[in-house]
């Protein structure tokens, strides 16, 4: 059972429509591909609205599967990347213009940098002083924004239907074989670029610790995991990608890590209004964590 947060996803019907468009296309073109779809009620509805106005939907149980929160092996990373890559590969040829963004400008690096600048201009001097090192890093990595804009405006990247939230726990694994069974959490299935999916896999899987880790000395670049992610994703997508996209592969992880650093930092500067926190400096710690990972990606990819 899933309760969709309509305060974040203000157009929940768009999620249902996007998922249905993908399901119908996959059924017609890749009938043996396992795409998890919501159950319908007797009237054919996939979204059921509760009295408080929040929509719910139900999914069938997929037997003998599990999710994991941390990548523990290169094989696991490869399987996950293959699973996400296969979804985008099988949706190749679908009309992406029929899909509605469920979160506007979700991975737009230019916009996220502008948000950071806006919050920096508004922030209290004491808050700026506390975050000065991270603010300096945000400005130092600004050339990544220029690189992103060049890729987008130059037409180097193909608009595809992508998952857009490719954490390892959004894959169901077979309990016995460890193979990827299907992709889950399709709320952000919408038009995007391959760098979003591959980049978020790199961001969330390459380090042995999560973005919540306060000790930045524990953040590391696991080359074997990085290589497995690229190999698994490209095993499905390489033949569908242009030469310009293949050149942009190393940019993906850096871009998505930078975006999250900016988002955490902007939220800290505005007073922690978006992300849930359990202590006052948590968003600043998250930003610091992501900037450390970004430094490692810059040095190793």
Describe the fold and architecture.
This protein is mainly α and 301 residues long. It has one domain: Aminoglycoside phosphotransferase (APH), C-terminal lobe (Aminoglycoside 3'-phosphotransferase, Chain: A, domain 2, Alpha-Beta Complex), CATH 3.90.1200. It is built from eleven helices and eight strands. The longest helix is centred in the last third of the chain and has 22 residues. 39% of the residues are buried.
Brief summary of the model shown:
With 301 residues, this protein is mainly alpha-helical. It is built from 11 helices and 8 strands.
Brief descriptors of the model:
globular; Aminoglycoside 3'-phosphotransferase, Chain: A, domain 2; mainly alpha; three-stranded antiparallel sheet; 301 residues
Produce the secondary structure layout:
Blueprint: E1 2-3, H1 12-29, E2 48-49, E3 55-57, E4 65-66, H2 74-90, H3 109-122, H4 125-130, H5 132-140, H6 143-153, E5 160-162, E6 171-174, E7 180-183, E8 190-192, H7 194-205, H8 223-237, H9 243-247, H10 249-270, H11 282-300
Antiparallel strand pairs: 1-3, 2-3, 4-6, 5-8, 6-7
Helix pairs in contact: 2-7, 2-8, 3-10, 7-8, 7-10, 10-11
């Amino acid at each position: 059972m899933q309760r969709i947060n309509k305060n974040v996803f203000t157009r929940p019907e768009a999620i249902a429509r996007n998922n249905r468009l993908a399901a119908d296309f996959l059924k017609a073109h890749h009938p043996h591909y396992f795409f998890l779809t919501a159950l319908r009620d007797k009237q054919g509805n996939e979204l059921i609205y509760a009295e408080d106005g929040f929509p719910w939907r139900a999914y069938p149980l997929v037997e003998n599967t599990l999710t994991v929160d941390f990548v523990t092996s290169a094989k696991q990373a490869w399987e996950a990347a293959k699973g996400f890559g296969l979804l985008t590969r099988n949706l190749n040829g679908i009309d992406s213009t029929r899909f509605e963004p469920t979160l506007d400008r979700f991975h737009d690096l230019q916009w996220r940098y502008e948000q950071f600048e806006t919050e920096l201009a508004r922030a209290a001097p004491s808050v700026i002083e506390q975050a000065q090192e991270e603010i300096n890093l945000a400005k130092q990595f600004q050339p990544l924004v220029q690189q992103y804009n060049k890729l987008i405006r130059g037409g180097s990247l193909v608009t595809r239907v992508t998952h857009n939230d490719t954490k390892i726990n959004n894959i169901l694994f077979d309990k016995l074989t460890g193979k990827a069974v299907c992709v889950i959490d399709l709320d952000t299935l919408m038009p995007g670029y391959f760098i979003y999916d591959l980049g978020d896999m790199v961001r969330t899987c390459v380090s042995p610790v999560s973005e919540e880790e306060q000790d930045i000395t524990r953040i590391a670049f696991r080359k074997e995991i990085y290589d497995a992610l690229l190999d698994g994703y490209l095993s499905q997508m390489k033949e569908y990608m242009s030469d310009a996209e293949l050149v942009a592969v190393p940019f993906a992880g850096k871009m998505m890590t930078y975006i999250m650093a900016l988002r955490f930092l902007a939220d800290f500067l505005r007073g922690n209004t978006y992300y849930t926190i359990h202590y006052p400096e948590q968003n600043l710690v998250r930003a610091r964590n992501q900037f450390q990972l970004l430094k490692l990606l810059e040095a190793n990819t």
